[in-house]
Amino acid sequence: MSARLTVWAPGGFPEVRPGDDLATLVGDVLAADAAASGDAPAEGDVVVVTSKVVSKAEGRVVLAADRERAITDETVRVVATRERPGGLPPLRIVENRLGLVMAAAGVDASNTPEGTVLLLPEDPDASARALRAALRSRFGLDRLGVVLTDTAGRPWRDGLVDIAIGAAGVAVVDDLRGGFDAHGRPISVTVTAVVDEVAAASELVRGKTAGRPVAVVRGVGRFVLAGDGPSGDGPGARTLVRPSADDLFREGSAEAYARGLADAQGLADGAESGRG
Amino acid sequence: MSARLTVWAPGGFPEVRPGDDLATLVGDVLAADAAASGDAPAEGDVVVVTSKVVSKAEGRVVLAADRERAITDETVRVVATRERPGGLPPLRIVENRLGLVMAAAGVDASNTPEGTVLLLPEDPDASARALRAALRSRFGLDRLGVVLTDTAGRPWRDGLVDIAIGAAGVAVVDDLRGGFDAHGRPISVTVTAVVDEVAAASELVRGKTAGRPVAVVRGVGRFVLAGDGPSGDGPGARTLVRPSADDLFREGSAEAYARGLADAQGLADGAESGRG
Fold it and tell me: How far is B134 from chain A (nearest CA, A)?
């Protein structure tokens, strides 16, 4: 018997404006799609929403002229920088308020009204929880997941992939530690980032230009949680952030190298002045 | 109208042994599944296969006792290391022969016969091309893609995701540079790593323990190529590897820092000896 995953992304999503009730917009589009296609959200489904429309609804819009300052404001820690040609300000890869390491702190200029840029939602896990509560109620469902996505680069590989920056009602990871492989040997290190794979799968359907910010993912019900409150909402996508202290790549190579040079210089100066 | 993606993974895949004709095994399982479910591979589909069964068929098996030496042999460049407790050898994150930066060079001990570990395929893009040719012929299809996957960790985020390490008949990236967003502004930096998202989507269906090494992805036909030869096979997954010279994270933070310290010491020693 086949295992099966289905992802669909309804069209017809309206432009989102600050103050819009996103749960109502998402619910309306899903309901209209269900009326047309018969595919209503069901128990065990995950509703995936790009964080861009969450930011718009939450009014996380700033003037493009203030982009560099916005990046600075969103930055907790600069991880790496790269000079850019043509008088552009340097590319800054930073850890932002949400713990995410992203170029430009996740501040985004695509698909935003002219002259503006978008900040990431204030608290994407909280936004996901609110959306989950509203959609569970509207569609009369218990086991429903919500994932909020953003598009991110990564070291070592070209190209961007969508990741989960907010989650509610989903187990976030498939923790196989303690399980056994097909040869009966313990699986010791495989912890799959399920919500990141859900985000990636949904991007293949939503795309970047087609005005489809919402997708429904069916077939991952084993990761979808029931009930409300903390046990139903689950751990949230923030738990996927690796603490920088545990991260072998917490700092860009050039930055770390320069810090090593500078520290050696400081030690040498200290020794000099100690000698003097 | 909804955009739609469907992924399915037939069960019943046999254990793969060195020398097995993988294209026949994959074709047999897809044909049996089609007979049972009616879902035969069709124009525009992508067949995703975990590289693990490719390695097994290609005989890329070594004794577990030789694991550390195998990692060394697969290593082109050590990127970062971390000590491990309990007398275990250090974790080595390295760039391997394929350009992939991976823990243990991608040498894998899960789902392998007792006492053995698996190396990655010799040339996953070539393996994908061979599989594509065989499956196009068997199913009488023109536009068919093949993606070979592996499971990888990443900086900054916990949990593993599947990525594409081999590809044939797929455009690899969705290059939106030159396109326009919904506000008519040029999209300047969005290059989506389509095959990595296909790999991630397939993992949600294949899983790690269920004996489903093959999945079919339907709904990404706009990225699937027609014909044989280089234009039909496309660029291959190797093109997603970012050259280390362009990579801001080409070296672990601790390693880069230590190199800075050492270089400063070398400079100081040079200055000393120059002075003397």
Answer: 22
Determine the residue of chain B that is closest to A34 in CA distance: B2
- Token pair in block for residue B131: 């599989």
Q: How many whole angstroms separate alpha carbon B183 and alpha carbon A113?
A: 7
Instruction: Nearest by CB to B248, from A7, A112, A253: name it.
Output: A253
Distances (CA, A) of A57 to A53, A147, B124: 6, 16, 44
Decide if A45 contacts A145 (C-beta within 8 A): yes
- Cβ contact, residue pair A37, B2, below 8 Å: yes
Angle ∠(A97,A100,A105) on CA atoms, nearest 5 = 70
ipTM: 0.94
Q: How far is CA B200 from the centre of its chain?
A: 10
Query: From A258, which residue of chain B is nearest by alpha-carbon distance?
Result: B260
Pair B225, B136: CB distance under 8 Å: no
Q: How far A27 CA lies from chain B's nearest CA (Å)?
A: 15
Task: Using an 8 Å CB-CB cutoff, list chain B residues near A38.
Answer: none
Contact B201 A196 (CB under 8 A): no
- Domain ranges in chain A? 6-60+120-241, 243-276
Hey, what are B20's tokens?
Answer: 């097995």
Contact B209 A257 (CB under 8 A): no
Cβ-based contacts of A205 with chain B (< 8 Å): 3-5, 219
As a CATH number, domain A6-60+120-241 is: 3.30.1330.100
Set of chain B residues whose Cβ sits within 8 Å of the Cβ of A245: none
pLDDT by residue for chain B (276 residues), tens only, comes to 679 999 999 999 999 999 999 999 999 999 999 999 889 999 999 999 999 999 999 999 999 999 999 999 999 999 999 998 888 899 999 999 999 999 999 998 877 888 999 999 999 999 999 999 999 999 999 999 999 999 999 999 999 999 999 999 999 998 776 676 677 766 666 799 999 999 999 999 998 776 899 999 999 999 999 999 999 999 999 999 999 999 999 999 999 999 999 999 888 787 777 654
Whether residues B181 and A39 touch (CB distance < 8 A) is answered with no
Q: Which contiguous run of DSSP H or E holds residue B151?
A: strand B145-154
- The DSSP line for A135-175 is HHHHHT-SSEEEEEEEEEEETTEEEEEEEEEEEESB-SSEE
Interface contact flag, B161 A93, Cβ < 8 Å? no
Task: Check residue B250 and report its DSSP letter.
Answer: S
Report the residue from B162, B205, B209 with minimal CB separation from A219: B205
Q: How far apart are CA A149 and CA A199, in angstroms?
A: 6
